[in-house]
């Protein structure tokens, strides 16, 4: 019987697949065209020619609108770079086979629509999932519409492309998967140290020092400053640790999220030993190489720090608010509501009743502070150890001409950030699990269930992050940054205004794309050579250009952090909302006025006058004074 079934299956397979064997080898395409997902008007497009049969290769011919084009080669293979200004016919000819594609380039201004609509919808509707999805749908529909298909078919195919193309690419990224795993492990650890009484033990101790709203906010700020080496670790550790304390003191989740968000990226961006330093130095090095400077990237970074007005002023503005006990704008309303709310209602804000029930500590569990401190310490110390381990280079540490700070900074700059975070968070989970089971607070089954419930609490944020990453990839395909850059750089301006302009459009790109690192990667290679060239054309000597060059270096960094702070599609903004269990759009709406106030004063009193030679120390003094007076006049006592 089985033999009969097998024979019939073989016969059916032969009938279905047999005709394929009749296809001649030469009918299989030897080369084919590979075009980018979106071809934008006036943006150079790389047309790649992929070879299917490298063993039987025949040189192809590339024609664009009937004109033969030169085919070049690089490490990835054959290619031709062409800038489409209107619809064109692209043909690949190989022997008797012709592959033809009709290209209709997309107007570059359409690239701003997906992020702009997503951001505006999120701020108006206060609902981020549908806003991100609509932004993605508009972008994918535009791409398919210009590929030559009908309007409704383009929308239909665009909806599926969100899942099978952009979401899949976002989730298949090593960095993105690392962030997801790290976030889930931190969520599981926090849930476990809540169930074993560790978090309650910390609350009991901190309550002795954080006995009022002001001291509670100061302790949160100090913790944020201490965990300076990575913005993700800072956000998740400080937010999750301090949330029970600030809830007890009736500090709003929005204020907690603001303090956490404003001490994570700003301190990580300017500290000497952080996970940001490697990316910053690599981008700066590209600019140095292009203009021919003899200084090292690290030296330029150090020289530029004094011009980092926005990050430094943000780190000063936060304690100013706390000390004066004043707030303004949407934050004032949130703080008043939190102060009037009962402890129970504040505690449950931002979490479902089911999750709160799963985080409740049993009455017979004795609060012990070390059940939380040990796992958190392992995460912090483990991350630093992991950074040193993955970035260790004997040649660097054997160089007697380098200072210890330079060696450590270079090591951490070369480290594998994401592996270090995953290792440390996993070690923290194991420590929490061991402490919980060894003291018989929970058995192994209950502990694992607690971990799984902790993983569940992260799903909401992971979904938002995934959609935000998808939108960032879409803006990359649509060349949104090039549109904004071209729009702003078209202005013919004096070299002294370049740092201020750099700050503004770095913030605009970071706001639109939700990525400060992505913004730095785009702007640094454009601005650093540009400001040097503009300075030379204006008749300035090297000594006069260098301060402008340093100012521009810091302006890219500062503008990227500002745009990241204001953007509802930024991953660090999303993680801050997550760690503090704050409604994401509420966090964006309450933080944005504070960020814009500091950003405006940093621009007007710092970046702009310092470029014209005004003393930097005087700029800081004036900016801090104005911020102090602004809080005094605009803010209301809480």
From TrEMBL:
Subcellular location: Cell membrane
Residue ranges occupied by any Na+/H+ antiporter NhaC-like C-terminal domain in the UniProt entry: 273-604
InterPro entries: Na/H_Antiport_NhaC-like_C (IPR018461)
Keyword Transferase: no
UniProt KW keywords: Cell membrane, Membrane, Transmembrane, Transmembrane helix
GO cellular component: a single term: plasma membrane
Topology with respect to the bilayer: Multi-pass membrane protein
Listed transmembrane segments: 106-125, 132-156, 176-197, 218-239, 307-323, 369-392, 417-436, 457-478, 498-527, 617-633
Name by which UniProt lists this protein: Na+/H+ antiporter NhaC-like C-terminal domain-containing protein
Taxonomic classification: Bacteria, Pseudomonadati, Bacteroidota, Bacteroidia, Marinilabiliales
